[in-house]
């Protein structure tokens, strides 16, 4: 099988997952074209070890490998052409053109290597910037996490303060209600106090009138009792009922104590009148209807 070209270049983006082995990304056979992902396998008509120059595992990178037909193979072709130079004059011209193309390919390869070196340098710079950006992002994430924690604590404190405010507002409403009720009661008490003062004044006036009336009544009763007693004696109609004309009894409420004081005569019938007011009419009734055989004996 003859080669399809004197030279070609294969490029690929790759990312190896680990360093435990030497994975192969591309293997072309015959003439052994091999590309690995860690620099150990690089073969194109000749072995090239690039170990340690590839990026670390789990990082994307770009890699190119060029294959050029070697000079040994080219010399063999030239020898074969010299032996059959008479028969193959045109082949020498083709070989010269092939050599020229080979030199151009070598130049292109050198330029490609320069571009690869520049790309590698740019990749390293990009990786450095990436690491710096990653550090900044990590620091920013740490600050964000701290800010998030502080915000969560602030929200918790705000919720606690809001709950306390709601509780305080409820207590304030209860206090306001109690205060309003107390104010209403106080207003009512003031009104009642005013009414009590007015009632007290009326009671004092009534009491004064009652005292005056009672005093007049006592004076009138005393005068009347004296007149009645004198009249009864003048008419020689003295009766045991005359004792009821005296101040302790007349116009007074007949009590059990007054009843017990009547011990000299038979007063049994008076027990039925306990609680009755002793008036002149009542005494006259006794004098007129119960005087027979009931005259008191002289002591």
Explained architecture:
It is a single chain. The protein is built from four helices and five strands. The chain is rod-shaped and about 195 Å long. Among the domains are: 7-132, no CATH class; 211-289, no CATH class. The chain is mainly alpha-helical. The chain has a three-stranded antiparallel beta sheet with strand order 2-3-4, with no helix packed on it. A two-stranded antiparallel ribbon has the order 1-5. It has helices at 71-83, 89-234, 256-261, 280-289, and strands spanning 7-14, 24-28, 33-36, 42-44, 61-68. Helix 1 packs antiparallel against helix 2 (89-234). A hairpin with a 4-residue loop joins strand 2 and strand 3 (33-36).
Concise synopsis of the structure shown:
With 299 residues, the chain is mainly alpha-helical.
Q: What are its keywords?
A:
two-stranded antiparallel sheet, about 300 residues, disordered C terminus, rod-shaped, mainly alpha
């Amino acid at each position: 099988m003859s080669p399809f070209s004197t030279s070609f270049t294969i490029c690929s983006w790759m990312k190896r997952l680990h360093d435990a082995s030497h994975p192969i990304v591309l293997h072309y056979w015959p003439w052994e074209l091999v590309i690995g992902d860690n620099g150990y396998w690089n073969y194109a008509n000749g072995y090239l070890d690039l170990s340690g120059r590839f990026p670390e595992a789990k990082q994307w990178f770009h890699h190119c490998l060029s294959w050029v037909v070697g000079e040994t193979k080219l010399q063999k072709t030239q020898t074969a052409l010299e032996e059959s130079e008479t028969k193959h004059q045109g082949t020498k011209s083709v070989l010269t053109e092939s050599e020229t193309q080979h030199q151009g390919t070598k130049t292109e390869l050198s330029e490609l290597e320069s571009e690869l070196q520049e790309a590698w340098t740019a990749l390293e710079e990009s990786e450095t910037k990436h690491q710096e950006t990653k550090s900044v992002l990590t620091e920013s994430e740490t600050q964000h996490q701290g800010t998030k924690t502080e915000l969560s604590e602030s929200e918790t404190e705000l919720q606690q303060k809001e709950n306390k405010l709601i509780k305080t507002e409820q207590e304030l409403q209860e206090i306001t209600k109690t205060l309003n009720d107390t104010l209403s009661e106080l207003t009512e008490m003031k009104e009642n106090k005013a009414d009590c003062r007015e009632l007290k004044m009326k009671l004092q006036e009534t009491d004064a009138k009652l005292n005056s009336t009672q005093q007049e009544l006592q004076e009138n009763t005393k005068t009347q009792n004296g007149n009645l007693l004198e009249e009864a004696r003048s008419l020689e109609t003295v009766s045991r009922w005359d004792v009821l004309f005296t101040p302790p009894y007349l116009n007074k409420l007949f009590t059990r104590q007054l009843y017990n004081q009547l011990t000299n005569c038979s007063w049994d019938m008076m027990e039925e009148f306990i609680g009755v007011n002793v008036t002149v009419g009542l005494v006259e009734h006794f004098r007129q209807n119960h005087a027979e055989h009931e005259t008191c004996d002289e002591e």
